[in-house]
Amino acid sequence: MLRAGTTGEEQSQMGINENVAEKYGELCEKIRYHMDRYYNQDTPEISDYEYDQLMIELRQMEKEHPELVTEDSPTRIIGGSAKRKAGVIVEHDVPMLSIQDVFSKEEVLEWVHEVRGMHPDVKFDVEHKIDGLSMSIRYDNGVLKMAETRGDGLLGEDVTANALVIPDIVQKLHTAYPYLEVRGEVYMSHEDFDRTNERQELQGKKVFANPRNCAAGTLRQLDSAMVRERGLSMFIFNIQKAEDVLMQSHHEGLRQLRENERMTTVPSVLCTTDEEILAQIDAIGEMRGELKYDIDGAVIKIDQIAYRNDFPAGTKYSAGHIAYKYPPEEKEAVITDIELSVGMTGRVNPTAVFTPVRLCGTTVSRATLHNQDFIDRLGIGIGETVVVYKSGEIIPKIRGVVTDKHPEGAVVYQIPDRCPICGAPVVREEDTADMRCTNEDCPAKLERRIINFVGRDAMDIKGFGEEYIRILIEQGYLKNIADIYSLYLHRDELIEKGLIGKETNTDKILKAIEDSKQNEPYRLLTGFAIPGVGKASARTLMKHFASIDQLMHARMDELQEVQDIGETTALALHDFFHKESNAALIRTLAEDGLNMTAQQVQGSDELKGRTYVVTGDLNHFANRNALTEYIEQRGGKVAGSVSGKTTALINNDVTSNSGKNKKAKELGIRIMTEEELLEETGNAD
Questions:
Q1: Helix 624-633 to helix 535-545 angle, to the nearest 10 degrees?
Q2: pLDDT for the residue 561
C-alpha cells in the first residue's frame, strides 16, 4: 500500500525497486535449484558455463543493489549438503570452501597485481582444476583415519570405507606426522567412465551423463565393492593442516608429499611473472582435450601459505587463490556420413556421423542435423570439417562449417525424396522445414509408436526394449500397437526362436504386458502420442472426462474447457479420435481388456491450490512418481524446488540439513512427512 502523498516519481521508483527485488529473488531461487541438482543429486540440468553466467548476473545485481543481499545468497554459500544415508556426518577440522571463479585473463592479472602489491616476492602455483568431487583425508601418526566429502563446507560425510579402495589414496605414510589433513579431487578417468557406462548399458541401467556425476555418485555408494569396480582416482591439491615443515610453500609441500609419501598430487607449475602465469593457463587449456580426465579450469594459488589470509574472498570462498574458467569446449571433426531415420510421425531425421572427438568427458561422433533448412544454412555435406560442441555439456551439436577446410568436390547434402525405410515418397510439410514419409504403414513409424507406447511415461511395460520391438516388427509379430496384447498367443514360438530371450525373460515380459492392462487410462492416452498431449495433460483430460469413450466423443468446445487444453491440442485430439483406424485400435484394445475408465478419487480436489516439493527417501510410496500421482489426483501440484509459493516440503527426515530443508525453514514453509500427508487426505494406515 502506498503512503499518503507519494509522488508519481516515488511510486515509479518503488515499482522499479519491487521489480528488481522480485527478479533478484527469482534468480536466487533458480541458482539454488541448479546448485541442488549439481552438488546433491549429481544430475545437473545446465552446463557449467550456463551456471556461471547466472552467477555473474547475480553478482552484478548484488553489486548494484547491496541492500538485497542476504546471508543465504548463492554467492555466500556452498551448494552441497552432507547426505545421511550414505555415511556418518562429520564436522570438518578445516572448512572445505569453494574457489572464486574468474572468466578473463584481465581478472586474473588484476588479482595477481593486487597480491604482488602487498607481497612483491610472491610466487604462484598454476594447476589443473580437476572436475570431480572434493574430499579431505585425515592422518593420525601417519595412518589414514578418516576421509570426508565436502558437503556444505562445514559438515561432510564420512566415506572412509570407500576411500580405502581408491588406488591413489595412501593409507600409511612413511613419515609419522602427528596430524596431517590433505584435500583433493576424486575423479573418474575417461577410460573408467566409458567402461562403467558400457556395464550400465549391458545391465539395462541408466548411463551417467559425464565422469563428474559418475564419480560423485560412486563415492557416495554404500557398497565399497562398487567403488572398487567402477574405478575412482584422486589428485591431492592442498595441504589443509600440517606441521610447519609442510606449511611454508604450497608447491614444496606437495612435492614432499609426492616424493616422500607417494601421494598423487595435482599437476602444477610454479610461476613468478605475469607472462609465466598466462602461458601456463594457455598450456593447460591447450592440453585439456588430450588429458585422461576432465578439467574445468586452471587454479592460480599463492605459493607462500602465510600470505593467503591477507586476501580473503568472503565466507563461501577460501583465501589465497582463484580459478580461471575456460570457455565452453569446441572441437573440429570431419563428417564421414549422414544417416537418416524416421520418427513415429513419419518425420525424416538426418544425423551427421563424424570423426570421434572428446567433449565434456565423453567421446561423441554423432549430432542431429535437424532438417534441410539447417543443412542448407550451414552448408553441411559429407567431407566437410565442422565445429562440434555440447549443448548443456550433454547434447552434441554442430555450430558451423570450417570454410577454409572445404574439400574439393564436396556438395551440400540433400535429403532424398524417398523414405530410407520403406521407399515411399517423402514430402515437405507446408509452412515447416520437416520432410515426412507419406506411407502410413511405414515400419519405422510403427517402431517409434510402439517404443513410445510401452515407455515409462505411457504404459510402462518394463523390459520391453527397443531391440525386442524392432525384431518383433521384422518377424511380423507386431503390425500395430494392439498386437502387443496378442503376443501371449505366440509364447512358445517366441521362446523357441529366442526373440525376446529365453523362457524366463519371455514370461516376464508377457506378464508385464498383461499387468499393463490395469493401468490408469491416462497412461493409455499418453501412449497414443497425440501432439500436445503429454503425461500431465493426459492425466488432466482423464480426470475431466472419466473414460476414453467420453473423450472420444467430446466436441471441440468441450475439449477446450479442460484446463491447459488450447485450440491446437483440442484439434489434434479431435482429429485423432475421428480417424477410423484409431477408433478401430481403441475398440480392439478395449476388447483385449485394457482399462478405459479412470479411477474416481473421492475428494479429488482436496489438495487444489496447494503446491508440494518432494525430497528424501520414501516409506509409503514406491517412488516419487507414485507420490506425485497421488498428489495430482487430488488436485495438487508438485514442483522441483522450494519457493514462496510452496505449500509444504515433503521429507520424512524433517531434521535433515539438506538444501531444500534449509530453504523451507528460511521461508517459514512447513516440512511434513508422508504419513502426515496421508493423514490429511484420510488415507493413513
A1: 40
A2: 87
**pLDDT at residue number 1:** 35
User: DSSP string covering 422-491, please?
Assistant: T--BEEEPTTSS-EEE--TT-HHHHHHHHHHHHSTTTT--TT--HHHHHHHHHTTS-SSGGGGGGGGGGH
CA distance 128 to 187: 13
Which stretches of the chain score pLDDT less than 70?
1-18, 37-45, 47-49, 71-72, 76-87, 201-205, 314-316, 361, 391-394, 600-604, 684-685
User: What is the crossing angle of helices 274-287 and 105-118, to 10°?
Assistant: 140
Residue 180, all three cell numbers: 596431517
Please report the pLDDT score of residue 393 as a whole number: 56
Asked if 129 is an active-site residue, the reply is: yes
Q: Where are the beta strands (DSSP E) in 103-177?
A: 124-130, 133-140, 143-149, 155-157
- pTM (global) more than 0.90: no
For 594-654, the three-class secondary structure string (H helix, E strand, C coil) is: CCCECCCCCCCCCCCCCEEEECCCCCCCCCHHHHHHHHHHCCCEEECCCCCCCCEEECCCC
The whole-number pLDDT of residue 404 equals: 92
What element of type H or E holds 321? strand 317-324
d(CA 126, CA 268): 5
pLDDT at residue number 38: 65
Residues 6+ away with beta carbon under 8 Å from 263: 168, 170, 182, 236, 257
Residues 83, 123, 129, 445: which is the catalytic one?
129
Specify the residue for cell string 595435482: 266
N-to-C CA span, the chain: 47
Q: Each residue of 581-621: pLDDT tens digit?
A: 999 999 999 999 999 998 765 546 788 888 899 988 888 88
Helix (H, G, I), strand (E, B) or coil at 293: coil
- For residue 625, give every residue at least 6 positions away whose Cβ sits within 8 Å of its Cβ, in sequence order, or none: none
* DSSP code at position 39: I
pLDDT value for 601 = 53
**Which domains, and CATH codes, for the chain?**
8-68 (1.10.287.610), 89-324 (3.30.470.30), 330-436 (2.40.50.140), 443-591 (1.10.150.20), 611-680 (3.40.50.10190)
What's the confidence (pLDDT) of residue 684? 62
